[in-house]
Design a protein that fits this description.
Layout: H1 8-16, H2 21-40, H3 47-59, H4 68-75, H5 80-93, H6 104-112, H7 117-130, H8 133-148, H9 152-168, H10 173-183, H11 189-205, H12 207-213, H13 217-229, E1 237-238, E2 241-242, H14 244-258, H15 262-278, H16 284-299, H17 304-317, H18 323-336, H19 341-345, H20 348-353, H21 360-372, H22 379-392, H23 395-412, H24 416-430, H25 438-448, H26 453-466, H27 471-490, H28 503-515, H29 521-535, H30 541-552, H31 559-573, H32 579-582, H33 596-604, H34 606-617, H35 622-638, H36 655-667, E3 672-682, E4 685-693, E5 700-709, E6 716-723, E7 729-732, E8 748-755, E9 764-771, E10 777-784
Antiparallel strand pairs: 1-2, 3-4, 4-5, 5-8, 6-9, 7-8, 9-10
Helix pairs in contact: 1-2, 2-3, 3-5, 4-5, 5-7, 6-7, 7-9, 8-9, 8-10, 9-11, 10-11, 11-12, 11-14, 13-14, 13-15, 14-16, 15-16, 15-17, 16-17, 17-18, 18-21, 21-23, 22-23, 22-24, 23-24, 25-27, 26-27, 27-28, 27-29, 28-29, 28-30, 29-30, 29-31, 30-31
Pfam family, one: Alpha_adaptinC2
Subcellular location: Cytoplasmic vesicle membrane; Endomembrane system; Golgi apparatus
GO biological process, one term: vesicle-mediated transport
Length: 793
């Protein structure tokens, strides 16, 4: 005897009582087989109960596609409870991708014309959620008719359905325009709420509808004013505020109508001020209305006083105990900073207090806004607060905070000493989290402040004796000791009380850096060079100690350190008479702004641009030329060149320079430059490709990707990935950094090597990922098929 089918309550209890997933799966498969058999036997009496069980199985995640036709059959039933199950099944099992979806139109149309309001409501709800473009075009007239006349519940659902129709098929706006005008006089708040939603959607989709409904601004303002002054209504009031949902919708519609419209904005200014001053803020409902009021005030052409009032409302939100409200206020203030900087600056102290909030999201948003509020007038006080925050903040915030302080100090520093002190404090507290360009920028800053050389090297040496774990700080300190160590030895400093350093202690400190397991290879290279430069200012046993330290690294596993140590060791052994001149102080390098033309010159013609500088510096007398040629010969010997003296050159004015440039020309053939192209431009980021093809390797294409930021805020977490067809080979080298500095900062670069053995047209797919200043993670895929022929032919 076959087992009787289970009812829906029994099926739910049985599945819930299953002890294992396998047992549950077995129960579902057995019951699904029974339901499928019943559907195949066309048992009309049990169709509704079987479909209800199948929908429960579908909700659990098991396949239930075989119930689609049964849903259509139940929708056509004359019994309301079966029709309701059929519509529920259609809503769960059907979508626009299903062919069965096309069969819904007739059933829904018949039910829209049904005399019963309950059936009309089912049809309208299903049409709004499942309707396709073709279905909306066929049934728009019926929806519009039901929205005009009928029971209030049906009209309300018809108006909401009309919103979905307009959103999906903007061509049908003309069908509902007169309906929107008529419904604005409705007394039923549910229908009026739907009418405001419908008008908002039409105005967003059509400029003609926007112009048409602008004349209804006084009527909408009157509705809003009545809601604000209305008394308590048990049906529509929430927390003592009359119909807040309708107020929010009207405010949104006013924002749409008043954008870039002076007359409409003037008509609503007084009412917006009334809402902003009379709305109760003790409950979350009032805060929601006030926030929408702020968005409306800032979105239209409102008066300056009203805009200041809106900023002050957001300032009051910052004092709210609810963290969600504080987060919303911080986000809104950051968006309004460009337009109303002076008004937002008044709340700077409150924003800085939000840095102590225990919620990490509020803390991050407060940090972003605090950094954006830094200006020339408040840079000292704001930076002081940010440094206090940097010392105690979570590790995930240290990088953003340090980068922001760097940019603020570079832009608004009142003096070079304050600038250096601020950067040193950041390196001391969060050296491991700073940007990649922090070390060269600080070195350039110190090098350009000649009067502060003694002060900087004193402070850095003091910081180095206390902590060598912060690698950027150690790198800057060792560089300064190498360049300005004589100031430490002499104890000359005008800014603070000078302290004379012991030479043996300085060498010991650099030796400690070299031997520390915390030191990176780059840090050891800085320390090794500092030892060599310091050796030109020391004598006796200290020189021998430096020589022994250098010789240790002649067998180092790191190739860079080994090469550097071997060269330095050769200076000691063979060319001790050249050591002082080779290890002189570094000249100050010009730090020019990075522009498109300048970057092209820098990348494509760096060797050619350096030659004139050599020609300008090189003197012309013959005895100096002979001395220079002898030094060049010694240097070539040091690099492993021939020991014999070079043959005599014709006297053309600069023989040493010409022979040296000829030597460089033998090492590297000039590359053929290709026009630069824009690969990606969005969210303020600009990715440009500059391409070169080495003449000695015609199948190789070198692409330098330059990523610059045109927004004032840094873009963090930038990652570029590249894919090419199988006929190509691609190699992506490490980028110069992962944070793209704000406008005016140096871009990041990344080298891409593409091998094209068959010389086919180049196609490339880019995958870019980065985090916007707002915290949103962006992932984009871009395909490039427009490479110039010179890049692959």
């Amino acid at each position: 005897m076959p087992e009787a089918p289970l009812t829906l309550p029994v099926l739910i209890r049985t599945i819930r009582s299953a002890r294992t997933q396998a047992e549950e799966r077995e129960l579902v498969q057995r019951e699904s087989a029974k339901i499928r058999g019943a559907f195949r036997g066309d048992e009309a009496d049990t169709r509704a109960s079987n479909l209800a069980k199948l929908l429960y199985i579908h909700i659990l995640g098991y396949p239930a596609h075989f119930g689609q036709m049964e849903s259509l059959k139940l929708m056509a039933s004359h019994r309301f409870h079966e029709k309701r199950i059929g519509y529920l099944g259609a809503a769960l099992l059907l979508d626009e991708k299903q062919d069965t979806h096309l069969l819904l139109t007739n059933s829904i149309k018949n039910d829209l014309l049904h005399p019963t309001a309950w059936v009309q409501g089912l049809a309208l709800s299903t049409l709004g959620s499942l309707g396709s473009v073709a279905m909306f075009r066929d049934l728009a007239g019926e929806v519009e008719q039901l929205a005009r006349v009928g029971q209030p519940s049906v009209r309300r659902k018809a108006v909401v359905c009309a919103v979905h129709v307009v959103r999906k098929v903007p061509d049908l706006i003309d069908v509902f325009t007169r309906l929107g005008e008529q419904l604005l006089t409705e007394q039923n708040t549910g229908i009026l709420h739907g009418a405001v939603m419908l008008i908002s959607e039409m105005c967003e989709q059509s400029p003609q509808a926007l112009d048409r409904f602008c004349k209804f601004v006084p009527q909408l303002v009157g509705l809003l004013r009545n809601l604000v002054v209305a008394g308590y209504s048990p049906e529509h009031s929430i927390s003592g505020i009359s119909n807040p949902f309708l107020q929010v919708q009207i405010l949104r519609l006013l924002r749409i109508l008043g954008k870039d419209n002076e007359d409409a904005s003037d008509a609503m200014n007084d009412s917006l001020a009334q809402v902003a001053t009379n709305t109760e803020t003790t409950r979350n409902v009032g805060n929601a209305i006030l926030y929408e009021t702020v968005l409306t005030i800032m979105g239209i052409r409102s008066t300056s006083g009203l805009r200041v009032l809106a900023i002050n409302i957001l300032g009051r939100f910052l004092l709210n105990k609810d963290r969600n409200i504080r987060y919303v206020a911080l986000t809104s203030l950051q968006k309004l900073l460009q337009e109303e900087n002076s008004a937002v600056q008044r709340h700077r102290a409150t924003v800085l207090e939000c840095l102590a909030d225990p919620d990490p999201t509020v803390k991050r948003r407060a940090l972003q806004l605090s950094l954006a509020l830094v200006s020339g007038s408040n840079v000292r006080t704001t930076t002081k607060e940010l440094l206090v925050f940097l010392e105690t903040c979570a590790p995930e915030l240290k990088s953003d905070c340090a980068s922001g302080i760097f940019l603020a100090a570079e832009k608004f520093a009142p003096s070079k000493r304050w600038h250096i002190d601020t950067i040193l404090q950041v390196l001391t507290m969060a050296g491991s989290y700073v940007r990649d360009d922090a070390v060269p920028n600080l070195i350039h800053l110190i090098g350009g402040a000649k009067e502060l050389h003694g002060y900087a090297v004193q402070q850095l040496y003091k910081a180095l004796t206390q902590d060598i774990s912060q690698q950027p700080l150690v790198q800057v300190a060792t560089w300064c000791i190498g360049e300005y160590g004589n100031l430490l030895l002499d104890g000359s400093c005008e800014e603070v009380e000078p302290t004379q350093a012991d030479p043996e202690e300085m060498v010991s400190m650099l030796e400690r850096v070299l031997q520390s397991h915390l030191s990176l290879p780059g840090t050891r290279a800085y320390a090794l060079t500092a030892l060599m430069k310091l050796g030109t200012r020391l004598q006796g046993s200290d020189i021998n100690r430096i020589r022994s330290l250098v010789s240790i690294y002649c067998s180092c596993h790191d190739v860079e350190l080994q090469q550097r140590a071997v060269e330095y060791n050769a200076l000691f052994r063979k060319y001790d008479h050249l050591r002082a001149s080779v290890l002189e102080k570094m000249p100050l390098v010009d730090k020019s702004g990075y522009t498109e033309e300048g970057s092209e010159k820098e990348q494509n013609g760096r060797e050619a641009a350096d030659a004139p500088r050599i020609l300008e510096v090189a003197p012309a007398p013959s005895d100096v030329q002979q001395q220079d040629s002898g030094q060049v010969s010694d240097l070539l010997d040091l690099l492993g060149g021939p020991a014999d003296p070079p043959p005599a050159q014709p006297s053309t004015g600069t023989p040493a320079v010409e022979s040296f440039l000829d030597f460089l020309g033998d090492l590297k053939a000039p590359a053929s430059a290709i026009a630069r192209m824009v690969a990606y431009e969005q969210d303020g980021l600009l990715v440009e490709f500059s391409m070169d093809r080495p003449p000695l390797e015609p199948t190789l294409l070198l692409i330098t990707a330059t990523v610059s930021n045109r927004t004032p805020h840094d873009v963090a977490g930038f990652c570029l990935q590249v894919a090419v067809p199988k006929s190509f080979q691609v190699e992506l080298l490490a980028p110069s950094g992962s944070t793209v500095p704000g406008q005016g900062g140096p871009p990041i670069t990344q080298l891409i090597r593409v091998l094209n053995p068959k010389k086919l047209p180049l196609r490339m797919r880019l995958r870019l990922a980065y985090t916007l200043p707002s915290g949103a993670l962006v992932q984009q895929i871009k395909e490039i098929n427009s490479f110039p022929e010179a890049a692959w032919k």
